[in-house]
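Tip: read the tokens left to right.
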């Protein structure tokens, strides 16, 4: 019985190869697409067909007839063949790559994705498209990538909330660590504590003194519950021993609008997003969240100069689904690292307040694991709950 089953499987494997050759298709390419994209259609015993979207995006139906063929024989043959192949980066990429962003256009994560898309496209020789899928603190985009085929065509550009959400959301549909392949960190970006110019406090020391004198009289806008900017505010209140009223918003843009309009007193905002408003005099900057002062604002103190030990910096990076083949991961990593070491790209990001990184996939993976642990006690202590 076993011998007959093995014979049927071998005949099926040979028949599949002959069918691919007759169709003029690359066997490795078609098996890869079959595993992730094909629609198998079994007929009577001995007949089968499947439809595969090939590289030119035209529909191809492959049909064959092998005596004794059953679904189980066919699937075992396909798995045997696919496991014997090194489906990897030698022909990758063969079509456009999509960067999923879990934030609206115009935010810092979106800015980072659109900054790296052109150099990645140039390096990889295929279009790199940015798709925004905001919502649930970035989890909608992350979930889409976690469930995507690990073929290198659907990637995630995420940020600090990726590791914060591991603690913030009690029931995520994915694991932020094990369901992704970290590829490389793009950059780190500090934030600014900014306020409406009508506030009487002219500097951070005066702002803290005002908050101490009038507990809960001042207000701070929160662009996203549980975001790194929200937690920066909680960290400041805790370390400076002050009480400021939280005013939550669904996004940075509406929060910024109300701070500019004076409806809310202050907010933490990414250096990338807030620099123009500060330079235009529409916002007053009280401090930067990085450990040291920023070259773009040499006269602006680091908050840690006034509140000892304070530091909060956001990071942005690229992920693939879990089990992304190592050679594809390495090729993507090399393209990102090359972009981050390009003088023009570095200057562009630095002018926007970002510090380019471009580390290895191994380094980024270790960082992500550690960052989940770093944020866990801060999230719990803040009492933050998802929107």
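Filled-in amino acids:
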């Amino acid at each position: 019985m076993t011998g007959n089953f093995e014979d049927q499987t071998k005949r099926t494997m040979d028949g599949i190869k002959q069918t691919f050759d007759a169709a003029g298709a690359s066997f490795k390419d078609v098996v890869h697409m079959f595993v992730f994209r094909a629609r198998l259609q079994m007929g009577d015993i001995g007949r089968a067909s499947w439809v595969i979207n090939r590289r030119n995006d035209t529909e191809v139906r492959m049909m064959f007839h092998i005596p004794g063929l059953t679904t189980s024989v066919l699937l075992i043959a396909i798995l045997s063949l696919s496991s014997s192949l090194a489906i990897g980066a030698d022909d990758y990429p063969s079509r456009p790559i999509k960067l999923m962003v879990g934030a609206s256009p115009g935010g810092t994560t979106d800015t980072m994705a659109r900054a790296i898309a052109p150099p990645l496209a140039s390096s990889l020789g295929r279009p790199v498209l940015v798709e925004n899928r905001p919502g649930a603190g970035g989890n909608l985009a992350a979930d889409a990538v976690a469930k995507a085929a690990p073929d290198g065509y659907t990637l995630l550009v995420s940020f600090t909330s990726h590791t914060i959400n591991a603690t913030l959301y009690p029931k995520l549909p994915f694991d932020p660590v094990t369901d992704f392949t970290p590829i490389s960190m793009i950059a780190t970006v500090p934030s600014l504590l900014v306020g409406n110019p009508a506030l009487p406090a002219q500097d951070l020391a005066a702002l803290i003194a005002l908050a101490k004198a009038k507990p809960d009289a001042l207000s701070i806008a929160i662009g996203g519950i549980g975001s790194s900017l929200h937690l920066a505010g909680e960290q400041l209140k805790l370390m400076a021993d002050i009480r400021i009223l939280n005013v939550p918003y669904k996004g940075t843009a509406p929060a910024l609008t109300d701070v500019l309009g004076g409806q809310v007193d202050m907010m933490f905002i990414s250096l990338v997003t807030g620099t123009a408003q500060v330079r235009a005099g529409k916002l007053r900057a009280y401090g930067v969240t990085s450990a040291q002062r920023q070259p773009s604002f040499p006269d602006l103190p680091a908050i840690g100069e006034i509140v000892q030990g304070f530091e909060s910096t956001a990071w942005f990076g690229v992920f693939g689904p879990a089990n992304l083949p190592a050679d594809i991961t390495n090729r993507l990593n090399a393209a990102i690292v090359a972009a981050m070491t390009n003088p023009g790209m570095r200057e562009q990001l630095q002018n926007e307040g970002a510090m380019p990184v471009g580390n290895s996939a191994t380094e980024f993976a270790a960082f992500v694991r550690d960052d989940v642990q770093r944020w866990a006690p801060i999230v719990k202590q803040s009492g933050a709950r998802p929107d």
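The longest helix spans residues 2-23. Residues 23-42, 44-64, 81-87 have pLDDT under 50 and may be disordered.
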